[in-house]
Amino acid sequence: MPISANDTKRKSWVEVPENSDFPIQNIPFGVFLTKEYVVTVGTRIGDSAIDLGALQQLNYFEGIELTDDMFMQDTLNDFISDGKKTWRLVRNRIAEIFDKNNPKLRDNAKHRDIVIFKMDEVEMQLPVLIGDYTDFYSSKEHATNVGKMFRDPENALLPNWLHIPVGYHGRSSTIIPSGIPVHRPIGQTLPAGENTPVFGPSRLIDFELETAFITTDANVMGEMIPINEAEDYIFGMVLLNDWSARDIQKWEYVPLGPFLAKSFASSISPWIVTMDALEPFRVASPKQDPSPLPYLQQKGKHSFDIHLEVAIQPENEKPTVIGNSNFKYMYWTMSQQLTHHTSNGCRVNSGDMMGSGTISGPTPNSYGSMLELTWGGKNPIKLNDGTERKFINDNDTVIMKGFCQNGQVRLGFGEVSSKLLPPFVRK
Ligand code: CA
């Protein structure tokens, strides 16, 4: 089935500001709360939020097999469970409804009032009920940089790294949408030069510039998803700030890996950009040497050209962009990650979220964490307001953006923006 929603010539009758991440070629999916306190599944064109539940009730999805309340829900899980064919039919239909040459909704003021909201009138929610969250560690540059700082500069990359898309199981209970502030966590750390740990607020709060993909129901327990089918089980992507407490991490992570240094908060952008929308931006991933084992081998292009940027905004100041990276630098592809994840028979469900791991590029300004950008705090970054940062200060807001652009279209993820608050105080 063709992805007619990707027609680059199509224009919408809904206004789209220049350089918007949300032209009619995007059509992402999300969940929002309206000012009437109704929660609904929706999409976005320009700065307009579109209520898909209302569109369905008004019969605009006629001819597409959908359960009656498919979009009148507070998560996308059921829609995602319906699979790729349904995602594509719905996205194609939305493109038709909002095509500037289609008068059906365009010229029906009553329907438009019910269906369309201004973005600043709605409150974005988590788009899916995330049952499980897995975080990979798939940027070679990031793994090398962290290995140099935390372990041994001579053997920065551990021997398994080039053979396995390394990952760990994270916590889904503290995944939050953009806009929700995060408290500085308290934890156990070992001060430099000491033998006894202390317990108190983390002093080294960091972001991790990541993307994440959302899966559909992929397998039954015991079943491995073959590498050439893995992409069919990926619904779309979001931006992910995988907040990290470096001092807690350094003390706790041997021998079993990240634990409380990571599970206090993970922030995501609220619109899921579909793999169909990202299709025009498909590019080759870096050459893998040595060649992975046969179950992870794939031909063709399986990465995506997604520009990423991260900025710090001190309170009452303007943001300073401190790093630029790109998803295409990832060594392991999302399909390799998903196939490896299921290779032991581990079940993957609708709404599961898989983080890429920090996306660092080859140059120092393309690193995806403060740990790397300041090299462990040795080289502080100067912000536009004249202040310096080694890590993130209380009341700083970290803003991540991501977009794709070619000669014909630009589309993106919007942003994930979250403020770091002082430690939580129990009342
Ligand atoms: Ca991470």
From TrEMBL:
Gene: fahA
PANTHER family: FUMARYLACETOACETASE
Active site residues of this protein: 142
Pathway: Amino-acid degradation; L-phenylalanine degradation; acetoacetate and fumarate from L-phenylalanine: step 6/6
E.C. designation(s): 3.7.1.2
Protein name: fumarylacetoacetase
Family: Belongs to the FAH family.
Residues given in the record as Ca(2+) binding sites: 135, 208, 210, 242
Residues where substrate binds: 137, 151, 249, 253, 358
Span of domain Fumarylacetoacetase N-terminal: 25-127
GO biological process, one term: L-phenylalanine catabolic process
Positions contributing to Mg(2+) binding: 242, 262, 266
Keywords: Calcium, Hydrolase, Magnesium, Metal-binding, Phenylalanine catabolism, Tyrosine catabolism
EC class (word): hydrolase
Residue ranges annotated for the Fumarylacetoacetase-like C-terminal domain, each copy included: 134-398
Pfam families: FAA_hydrolase, FAA_hydrolase_N
GO molecular function: fumarylacetoacetase activity; metal ion binding
Source taxon at top rank: Bacteria
Cofactor requirements of the protein: Mg(2+); Ca(2+)
